[in-house]
Write a structure and sequence with these properties.
The protein is an alpha+beta fold and about 350 residues long. It is about 20% helix and about 20% strand. The chain has five helices and 19 strands. A four-stranded antiparallel sheet has the order 7-4-9-12. Strands 8-2-13 form a three-stranded mixed sheet. Strand 18 and strand 19 form a beta hairpin.
């Protein structure tokens, strides 16, 4: 299974009331409103769902690091001016039904400085806290046993394991696309006939709900133990910044890469098409350890050689010529599988030994 990032080195968002307004019409697919029937002002609203999750941390990720950033936070406007959020990114804890309201009044910008910031321009993130976040089930509210992180693309106001898959599918495609190509996240909002943005509980989509439960369990298995332990502390409220931006991206890409295997496990457990009865806690899911403390992976290296040096070392790069391109292939967990060379290259035995002694990890 290959990582989806071709650059080197690199690696490793009930319902929207949008822009300070709300409507009585409630879509179930997580998309924003068209603005036709807005009435009174309201906060930025939405839901966090595995089952509906109460007491989960949710925030608007305005600096792109995937974590709730405290203030003061300087945001660059479209005109190049700067607007400061004194209290940091808008954040809140979810209430009954997984509903949340974010205070977006700090996004209002002095008209002499620039246009107001639009919350629909930024992704939402949600963090389930172990032992504290409660999932609404037919048997009552059940504490989640382990932390997991979810996200949704800008403009999507409900956050679920499925919106997380949709978001990172689009992000991976964006990183793979040529600079001249613009990726539309909506193009990645369907998978295997599923609308990844819908409120599957409200829609009564038991298949999607079963997939979401299994994907949440897989995501929880990839959260580092020390991060999960920190979130388990009595005073932890999900504001701690523990993981790096690259590590969070790695978690998202791993979810995308293993989503089909997780959904296959659900399908294989279905009896007579009854997805509602699938016990996702008993499924055998992929076991994919991740290296989140140092998630940067080198995937491509270009090698240049001194073409006409007569045995002398080059004093500059003007006479260097492309000699070979190396391609590093990894497992989903980051273990080096192979190195392929296009072009002329004589590997140094010392470097080969060093790779072997590193047990395949870069």
């Amino acid at each position: 299974m290959k990582l989806l990032i071709p650059l080197s080195p690199v690696f490793v968002s009930l319902l929207l009331a949008g822009c300070g307004e709300e409507s009585d019409r409630l879509p179930v697919d997580g998309r924003d409103f068209d603005g036709v029937e807005y009435s009174e002002a309201a906060p930025y609203q939405g839901r966090v769902i595995d089952g509906y999750l109460r007491n989960a941390r949710v925030w608007l990720d305005m600096d792109g690091d995937g974590q709730p950033t405290p203030g003061p936070l300087a945001v660059t406007l479209a005109n190049g001016a700067t607007h400061t959020l004194e209290d940091g990114e808008p954040t809140a804890m979810t209430g009954p039904g997984g509903r949340f309201e974010l205070d977006i009044s700090p996004l209002a910008v002095d008209e002499q400085v620039g246009a107001d910031l639009d919350p629909r321009d930024y992704p939402l993130y949600a963090l389930a806290l172990p032992g504290k976040t409660l999932e609404e089930t037919p048997a009552g509210e059940i504490p989640v046993p382990r932390a997991y992180l979810m996200s949704a693309s800008p403009g999507v106001n409900q956050v679920t394991p499925l919106t997380t898959v949709a978001r990172y599918r689009a992000l991976a495609a964006e990183r793979n696309a040529p600079a001249s190509v613009t990726v539309n996240p909506r193009d990645y909002a369907e998978l295997d006939g599923l609308n990844l943005l819908e409120d599957y509980i409200l829609a009564g989509n038991h298949r999607a709900h079963a997939y979401a439960r299994a994907l949440a369990r897989f995501s929880a298995s990839q959260i580092p133990d020390n991060y999960n332990d920190a979130l388990s502390q009595p005073d932890a409220d999900g504001r701690v910044q523990w993981l790096s931006k690259d590590a969070i991206f790695l978690l998202g890409v791993s979810l995308v890469q293993n989503a089909n295997a997780v959904m296959d496990a659900v399908d294989n457990a279905v009896v007579a098409g009854d997805y509602q009865s699938v016990d996702t806690d008993s499924l055998t899911l992929p076991d994919v350890p991740l290296e989140t403390e140092n998630p940067t992976l080198v995937t491509t290296v270009d090698v240049f050689a001194y073409a006409d040096g007569g045995g002398e070392l080059p004093v500059g790069d003007s006479s260097l010529e492309a000699s070979a391109r190396l391609h590093f292939d990894y497992s989903a967990g980051g273990r080096l599988l192979s190195i392929a060379s296009q072009g002329c290259l004589a590997p140094d035995a010392t470097e080969l030994v060093r790779l072997i002694e590193a047990d395949g990890f870069m």
